[in-house]
Amino acid sequence: MNPRTLAKFREAFAPSGAKDDPGDAPLALELVSKHRDKLRPWRPDDEQTRTLQFLVEQRRKLVHDRTRLLNRLTSVLKGDVPQV
């Protein structure tokens, strides 16, 4: 099953969000035994999807870095931040 499915099921009984593997086992058993017809098998992402996720994350980091550097440069040029 999808790990998020069990996490959401756990939240119904432990709203604090506390995760406990030994405590999850009975919840997983209950979920599978009582709601099997509503569950779909979990399939990990294929290699292409994982590669795309990695590339998107790298782009996000680069955009964040560019924004940070542009903001810093703008502040220095305006004289808002002491130069070091």
Secondary structure elements and pairings:
Elements: H1 3-13, H2 21-35, H3 47-78
Question: Explain this structure to me?
Answer:
This protein is mainly α and 84 residues long. It folds into two domains: 3-38, no CATH class; 45-84. Helices cover 69% and strands 0% of the residues. The chain has helices at residues 3-13, 21-35, 47-78. The protein is elongated and about 65 Å long.
A few lines on this structure:
The chain is an all-alpha fold. The protein is built from 3 helices and no strands. The mean pLDDT is 86.
Shape: elongated
Element-level helix/strand string: HHH
Total number of helices: 3
- Structural class designation: mainly alpha
Main attributes?
84 residues, mainly alpha, 3 helices
